[in-house]
Design a protein that fits this description.
13 strands; 2 domains; Rossmann fold; 6-stranded parallel sheet; about 350 residues; 7-stranded mixed sheet; 11 helices; alpha/beta
């Protein structure tokens, strides 16, 4: 195992590790609120620099997500760079577990894009610093989807005066685990669905199970819908897509939906109500608290339902202060971080 510390500003630590066919990155943005937690993404990148940019942005997002969710954890993230050709998943994820172990409990991981609870079981063979196990809290996707659904309800209430989604049309981008469960919640609530994914099989399942209408990956932005739900990768709200949207609300599960902060300003200028991604998608983190904090199902479910109030408060703050919703969410998260920092200073000086 070869571990290299990479110099970085604005984060506590960034390290790269190679071990046979394994090539991984772990970034810790902040441990101010507690040990850093964040999932492991298994994805193909053009080069390590592209992966580094992604892991740093995702780790920072986890700090803000955990602060806004009110859980005692900081922010971190892992990336395993996916190589061409066949792989031995057990070997790859056990190597990742050994890398996580070197952080000595400052960082806990779980599943993310491209990984599963089964992969985390391999990680668990090498380290105790892992959540989302099949033997523990299990697949977080249904819980993440529940949180996004509650965020949509809050947005509907703020925009239309009622949190009912009956008769509303939602365009879901990404029909993987979270997107599938979100479609289930929405259909039960009486919503009509458009759906797209680069994997046609996933789209077909949502079409067959929930009566969605399939659209092409680019067509989803032009859908005649009330709500756009990005549930795939980040950066989808950008110069090429925002002005195509016909929706009144954007609320989804994907991380880092805004390609740049200014795209949040553009959504506000177009009077599109944007639910900041890390406010909506914190259900997975909350689910992990069952493993990390010993919460029971009822405790985690109640915490997920609080996403509704958190999102509504973001809208009210944004309106009162005349700022876009993404800035209001950042401000709420930063207030908690600042409060914790002040409390720490008082402890040090007492």
């Amino acid at each position: 195992m070869n571990i290299n510390e990479l110099p970085i500003k604005g984060h506590e630590r960034l390290a790269a590790c190679t071990d046979g066919d394994y090539h991984g990155l772990i970034a810790i943005h902040s441990t101010l609120l507690g040990p850093a937690i964040g999932g492991t993404r298994f994805w193909r990148y053009r080069n390590q620099d592209e992966a580094i940019n992604d892991v740093l942005r995702l780790a920072r997002g986890m700090t803000y997500k955990n602060a806004l969710a009110g859980v005692p954890f900081g922010g971190g993230k892992s990336i395993i760079l996916k190589q061409n050709g066949p792989i031995d998943r057990e070997a790859i994820f056990r190597a990742h577990g050994r890398f996580v172990e070197t952080f000595g409990g400052r960082y806990f991981t779980a599943e993310d894009v491209g990984t599963s609870p089964d992969d985390m079981e391999y990680v668990r063979k090498e380290t105790q610093y892992v959540a989302g196990l099949m033997s523990g809290s299990g697949n977080p996707s249904p819980v993440t989807a529940r949180g996004v659904f509650r965020a949509m309800q809050a947005a509907a209430r703020y925009r239309w005066g009622s949190d009912s989604l009956e008769g509303r049309t939602v365009a879901i981008q990404g029909c993987g685990s979270v997107g599938y469960y979100l479609a289930s919640y929405l259909r039960k609530a009486g919503a009509d669905l458009f759906a797209t994914d680069v994997d046609e099989g996933k789209v077909e399942k949502v079409v067959n199970d929930f009566g969605a209408m399939a659209l092409g990956p680019d067509d989803i932005y032009y859908a005649d819908a009330d709500i756009f739900a990005p549930c795939a990768l980040g950066g989808v709200l950008n110069d090429d897509t925002i002005h195509a949207l016909k929706v009144e609300i954007v609320a989804g599960a994907a991380n880092n939906q805004l390609l740049e902060p200014r795209h949040g300003d553009e959504l506000a200028a177009l009077d599109i109500l944007y639910v900041p991604d890390y406010a909506a998608n914190s259900g997975g983190v909350i689910n992990g608290c069952r493993d990390l904090l010993g919460w029971n199902t009822a405790q985690s479910a109640a915490k997920v339902d609080e996403i509704y109030d958190t999102v509504f408060n973001i809208f009210e703050m944004a309106a009162a202060e005349g700022i876009p919703t993404y800035k209001a969410a950042d401000r709420l998260a930063e207030e908690r971080l600042a409060s914790t920092r002040r409390e720490g200073d008082r402890v040090v000086h007492s």
